Amino acid sequence: MYLNRALHVEVVLSLLFASILFVGCSEKKSPNLDGKKLLKQKCSRCHNLDIPPKTFADEKAPPMMAVSFHILGFINAATPADKLPNAIEFVTDFVQNPSISKSFCDKESLKTYGLMPSLKGKVSEDEIRAIARYVFTHYTKDNLLAKMKKIQQIREMPKGRLLAGQNGCLSCHAKNFKKVGPSFKQISNAKSTKEIKNSIKNGSKGKWKESNNIPMPAFKKLPNKDIEILAKWIKKN
Ligand code: HEC
Ligand code: HEC
Q: If you take atom 9 of ligand 1, which residue's CA is the nearest one?
């Protein structure tokens, strides 16, 4: 009876072990590790992590976006499905044993940056895999395009809308419906530009019944030219 149970446990364990090994062949997973956080901790001192990347005259390493594009562009893979696991294994090896011949950086860049120092012992293999998995799924063409689109939208935004966002006005006001404060449409219909400017600078309380005496804070430090732009923008609603 006991023997039987022991045998049973052993069989189950060995099956489990075999399946883990089998999974390990296609891609070694490292769950529970936060690749994004680790990337920041272990790599951001040299690699810029922004999308789109910021580049500096005295940067220490290529931006992570460039690293991701290099490797995904050049890595050997028998099938498209092999690309990601191969890229992750490349990074796992490179971070521990960097060499000029392995690097996908062009010769000129390698000369300016110098070879990456090995991080062996400073970051574990599981951590590198989690970082690499995050890098290759985050620094993608789709994410770059989405980010560029957002930047373009902000560029095209009216200055008043931009200032309203930057100064927290939109947490209490919306264009067409009451939030904490009245909508910009209501305000525009009821108030002159001069009154609006005055209220932004000095705050307001008790003028709008539906706001139940909640005060609007004074924005004393906001430059007059920004108040002017905000007031004109509100009047256009
Ligand atoms: C002390 C600075 C430094 C740190 C920290 C650092 N790197 Fe690098 N890395 C470099 C430099 C310099 C290069 C460019 C030269 C080269 O390819 O070796 C580079 C290149 C690379 C490349 C090869 C890029 C290519 O296009 O072939 C990979 C992959 C890479 N780094 C990953 C990482 C990861 C992941 C981390 C964090 C775990 C990290 N690096 C941390 C300096 C650093
Ligand atoms: C914490 C919430 C809050 C924030 C932040 C806020 N408001 Fe208000 N706002 C209110 C409330 C509440 C009222 C209604 C006050 C009243 O009844 O007099 C109001 C009223 C106003 C009015 C109408 C005042 C009047 O004279 O009738 C204007 C204009 C206005 N806000 C603009 C802004 C702008 C521009 C910003 C950002 C720079 C801003 N608000 C930020 C809550 C807020």
A: 116
pLDDT band for 58, please (50, 70, 90 cuts).
Answer: confident
Which whole number is the average pLDDT over 61-72?
96
List C-alpha distances in Å: 176 to 183, 184, 212, 216, 234: 5, 7, 19, 18, 11
Give the tens place of pLDDT for each residue, 77-121: 999 999 999 999 999 999 999 999 999 988 888 999 999 999 999
In a domain, 6, yes or no: no
Q: Is 104 in the pocket of ligand 1 (CB under 6 A)?
A: yes
Ligand minimally distant from the alpha carbon of residue 122? 1
> In sequence order, what are the residues at sequence separation of 6 or more whose Cβ sits closer than 8 angstroms to the Cβ of residue 56?
48
Q: Is the pLDDT of residue 32 over 60?
A: yes
Asked whether residue 1 is assigned to any structural domain, the reply reads no
Q: Which of the listed residues 122, 147, 172 is the one where a domain comes to its end?
A: 147
71 lines ligand 2 (CB under 6 A): no
